[in-house]
Amino acid sequence: MILVGKGSIKRPEKEISDVNQYFLTMFASSTCCQLGKIQDPVDGKIKKDLQSVQIMIDIPLMLCDKTKGNLTKKEEGFKRNFVFC
Length: 85
Prior knowledge:
InterPro entries: DUF1844 (IPR014995)
Number of strands: 2
Order of helices and strands: EEHHH
Low-confidence stretches: 1-5
Strand content: 5-15%
Mean pLDDT: 78
Pfam family, one: DUF1844
Shape: elongated
Strand order of the largest sheet: 1-2
Number of domains: 1
Helix content: 55-70%
């Protein structure tokens, strides 16, 4: 169940799982961009920003701790492969 304002919206588990996967994939692609491994999608340039890389690593690690025991097996597996926690 996803909380929205004062109420809540019930969504299928598969949809929530897909959102989590896309969310973590967003961090992965952003990290690759900030490491200079792929072009920035906005300006097409290769650049490095190690401070942002650290943040992009820290956020998924924090989410590992905060979501422990609250994810489906598929989500746990994806998360484990993504952040090695």
